[in-house]
Amino acid sequence: MPDVLVIGAGPAGVFAALRAADLGAQTALITRGEYGGMAANDGPVPVRTLAHAARLVRDARQLGRYGIFVSEPILEYPRLLERVREVVEDVRTHSSLRPHLHRLGVTIYERAGTARFVDPRTIETEGGLRLQAEKIIICTGGVSRRLPVPGFELTATHSDAWSLPAVPPSMLVIGAGATGAQVASIFNAFGSRIQLFEAAPRILQTEDEDVSAAVVAAFRRSGIVVREGFGAIESFEKTASGVRMVFTKEGVRDGAEAALAVVAVGWVADAGGLNLPAAGVETDSRGFVWIDAYLRTSAPHIFAAGDVTGRLMLVPQAIQDGFMAATNAVRGPRMTLGDQVSPIGSFTDPEYAQVGLTEAKARETHDVVVAAVRFDSTTRTIIDGRTAGFCKLIVDRATSTILGCHVVGERAVEITQVAAIAIAAGLRVNDLARVPLSFPTYAGILGRVAANAARQLGLNAGWQASRMEDL
Ligand SMILES: Cc1cc2nc3c(=O)[nH]c(=O)nc-3n(C[C@H](O)[C@H](O)[C@H](O)COP(=O)(O)OP(=O)(O)OC[C@H]3O[C@@H](n4cnc5c(N)ncnc54)[C@H](O)[C@@H]3O)c2cc1C
């Protein structure tokens, strides 16, 4: 009998198993499907590969500006999907984690089918495998939220992209959070006519308002029809050429049609098959596994980590959770996560990213200074012909430290990583301004915006102080 059994081999589960074994526990890792979970097989890796293809299409369209003439790019979707499969396989093959798990003696049960609790220390899989352990860590991730509306079975999720024979001529994308926005942006670049529906008053609700406004404007310029605050869905119906969504707003019925409807209205715990009551594990009001500060569930010998707990649903956070849950499972509950700096970004066109507080949130608790620099005033973006976007910094007036950074435009996600390091280090904004970041780079915009904030605070930004323009 292993000391620790980990259920689910996504980032949370893999790191939980690694850590438990590293601490000397006999460890088993069991997962329903392929090793790697959502991240490797159905989320960031394949979606980022599609996003890269979309970027290549955009770059190809720019070639003429640089005197390079080729014909208009033509996308062969089945060939692209082959590339996606190649990438997924390559990432899996080159993972150093799996050999590490083997070296540490972790027993891996892959493609084992859904595991369910029989009692608080025993699980059984669909295939009849029965395992017991002293400690169990639930890392089963999440799944796309389903809507209780008639005809929902006619809709698709982002996962269906992997089995489409061709790019659909038109698409309804319902839900404009990170996943919906990426699906809309990528398939728009591939030539699909996109209508993007968001029930909330603005797309990308959790982003800074300036970010939402810039992305929605760019989406509209690129031909995506965006309907914010569109109302409530009544039903989906089959049509001769696809699907129709019927919705109502303020008592008025409306409809929209396309070849395909992709629904991305949130993420719920993948815990339905686990038979949690048999283990005494409770869920919270949103249906995620309830955990305390040590990632302990309501059954003290069972821990949970990653998306199944419903906190920040991202790979780095799942990894941290897995590490922490295993540490607490083996050594006893002692490790908690302090305040985390969590950069978040999305690979749309334009990219957007954030770290820290939005301007509105920061203003609730701090006296702030806000500085922004537009992409069209920096050298690198002009060289690359990528001048749409901005970088915005929110700074605490009392301490001069950075509370938040929000970027829209080319390489936004990478720029934000630098800001995350500055925030994690507690760097004052004038100290950030003094770092001679390389020229001409995208990240260099951070020096400019930091100098702008330092000037507003009356602080000396060193050599940046006299630099009003980029060059
Ligand atoms: C479209 C999309 C794009 C994304 N892009 C990003 C991104 O760019 N950056 C980022 O950081 N994050 C991204 N994410 C989020 C990221 O994929 C998740 O946060 C991460 O995979 C969570 O890891 P996890 O280990 O908790 O769960 P998962 O990766 O979901 O792994 C859970 C595993 O458990 C298995 N399982 C479930 N139930 C059972 C059971 N009963 N028995 C046995 N096994 C079971 C599942 O099959 C799965 O293999 C994206 C997600 C999506 C959907």
Which regions are unreliable across 5 or more consecutive residues at pLDDT < 50?
none
Could you say which structural class the secondary elements and strand pairing correspond to? alpha/beta
| Total helical segments | 13
User: Strand-residue fraction?
Assistant: 15-25%
Mean pLDDT: 95
Work out the number of β strands.
22
Q: Approximately how much helix is present in the residues?
A: 25-40%
| Ends apart, CA distance between termini | 67 Å
Task: Give me the Rg, rounded.
Answer: 24 Å
Small-molecule binders here are: flavin-adenine dinucleotide
Q: Describe the main β-sheet briefly.
A: 5 strands, parallel
Lateral strand order in the biggest sheet: 3-2-1-7-17
Name the shape in a single word: globular
Describe the fold and architecture.
The chain has 471 residues and is an alpha/beta fold. The chain contains 13 helices and 22 strands. The protein is globular, with a radius of gyration of 24 Å. The strands form six sheets. The protein has a five-stranded parallel sheet, with helices on one face. A five-stranded antiparallel sheet has the order 18-19-22-21-20, sandwiched between helices. Strands 11-10-9-15 form a four-stranded parallel sheet, covered by helices on one side. Helix 3 packs parallel to helix 6. Bound molecules: flavin-adenine dinucleotide.
